[in-house]
Amino acid sequence: MNVGVLALQGDFREHLSALGECGVKGKLVKTVAEIAEVDALIIPGGESTTISKLAKAFDLFDLISKRIADGMPTYGSCAGMILVAKKIIDPASGQDTFGGIDMEVRRNAFGRQTESFEFDLEFKPFPGAPIRGVFIRAPWVESQGAKVEILASIDVAGKSHPVAVRQGSVLATAFHPELTGDNRVHRYFLETVCKK
Amino acid sequence: MSKANDAQVGGARVKRGMAEMLKGGVIMDVVNVEQAKIAEDSGAVAVMALERVPADIRAQGGVSRMSDPDMIEKIQAAVSIPVMAKVRIGHFAEAQILQTLNVDYIDESEVLTPADYEHHIDKWNFTIPFVCGATNLGEALRRINEGAAMIRSKGEAGTGDVSNATTHMRKIGSEIRRLTSMREDELYVAAKELQAPYALVKEVAETGKLPVVLFTAGGIATPADAAMMMQLGADGVFIGSGIFKSGDAAKRAAACVKATTFYTDPKVVAEASRGLGEAMVGINVADIPVPHRLAERGW
User: Fold this and answer.
1) N or C end of chain B, less CB within 10 A?
2) Global pTM?
3) Which of A57, A90, A117 sits opposite B14 (nearest CB)?
4) What is the pLDDT of residue B231?
């Protein structure tokens, strides 16, 4: 399987090494030709506004949206989660998303950088074996459709907010497993989401 | 699971991780809300809020300090991308103020007038992450040892002359490559020569890179400058005076963003370089008397 990591901006190299540790030789992709060739795509952490603007400037936006809609397995972390959401509650001017998961997300939901945090998180596919969630100016899911499976949530001020979700072949996390050296989320994407 | 009970804030991973998310991007100096919006619209990954860009600091002279909190807050309210701000080298009270303002990153910067000619800020004491300038590997590792979560080359800010940034990037790169070729028992002397902690020197020798993200700064004014710095190993680019001291700022800003992403594709960089109007006028670093060179500040 040919797995691409969208390399417009952000921590794409960390995703590439996480794939490598899972025994998959991924490829950094940032042109129409490169994206047309991949079987699955990872959208990394970064600035969602920047990635979205660059995708438009280089004619990748409609292609990626269409490939996700056609069922290409896709995983987005942090900025990537925002970009696979159907809707952003508080978008920057002209900021659009590729879509893929029927959800509304809130950007910088936990606050600014001083509120960024690490947290041991129950991730539904690995019961009893929490993963270390690294949340950096992270989004959360504000609301989601019936077909969206919630894989992890965090309670803030008594209210539960999904921070990892899946809908069919699209997976999204508000946190960054690629920064922890723990590759279980990447394995879950490769072995379960991609094999759907 | 409740965040309030178990969350860890301000650890090295979220501080350094924040910089990882800026990689491949352009951070732009802005002095007002209008410029901040232009920067965000053109695809900047963050803005640096300051009262005067380096070119004006240079022209007007005098003591240069942290910006007015009102001005920083206006910019925070106007954009959703991260907002950074500068403090004087060693001025921990200015840093305490910026932390209460919840800026996303503090630049302990030689562009402002140093407040302490011996000590830098003890950056481990803060929840907020710091970026610091460096002209060579030893200086970068000393800043990391003090808690810097991101390093940038110093270049010579406010000149539009990229030569010093080139020197610093090449120097840091070659010193890293030299360490990776050394025997383990040679690293002790290398640490002494670099005037840097042995543990960090050993880590760099083993991994072949800095333990934090390395951006470049100082004198970058064109898409070609940005592409060159990225090819010399920068993870991303700071552009200070280069954008808003030029003719068509919005167009130049977007062009530098494109060139930073597609730095290995000269066709894209060529396309981005077309029709940008006047670049900032610039000053040759060689024409600046040594005592007035900003890169000499910090140690």
Assistant:
1) C
2) 0.95
3) A117
4) 98
Per-residue model confidence (pLDDT) at position B268: 97
Q: What is the DSSP letter of A193?
A: I
Phi, psi for residue A175 in degrees, rounded to 5: -105, 180
Which residues from B are below 8 Å from A9, CB to CB?
Answer: 23-25, 45, 261
**Could you read off the pLDDT of B123-154 as tens digits, one per residue?**
999 999 999 999 999 999 999 999 999 999 99
Of A111, A118, A157, the CB nearest to B11: A118
Q: Can you give the residue ranges of every domain in chain A?
A: 3-193
One-letter amino acid for residue B8 of the chain: Q
Residue B138 near chain A (CB below 8 Å): no
Where is A99: in which H helix or E strand?
none
Cα separation of A108 and A136, whole Å? Answer: 8
C-beta atoms of A117 and B9 within 8 A: yes
CB A76 within 8 A of CB A43: yes
CATH number of the domain at A3-193, please?
Answer: 3.40.50.880
Residue B130 contacts A, CB cutoff 8 Å: no
Identify the residue whose tokens are 């910090």.
B298
- Asked whether residue B60 carries a pLDDT value surpassing 70, the answer given is yes
A20, containing H or E segment: helix A12-21
Q: What is the ipTM of this complex?
A: 0.95
Any chain B CB within 8 A of the CB of A50? yes
Is the CB of residue A93 less than 8 Å away from at least one CB of chain B? yes
**Dihedral over alpha carbons B48, B52, B55, B58 (to 10 degrees):** -130
Check CB contact under 8 Å for B24 and A176: no
Residues in contact with A5: Cβ distance below 8 Å, sequence separation at least 6, in sequence order:
A12, A15, A16, A19, A26, A27, A28, A29, A41, A42, A44
Is B12:B149 a contact under the CB 8 Å cutoff?
yes
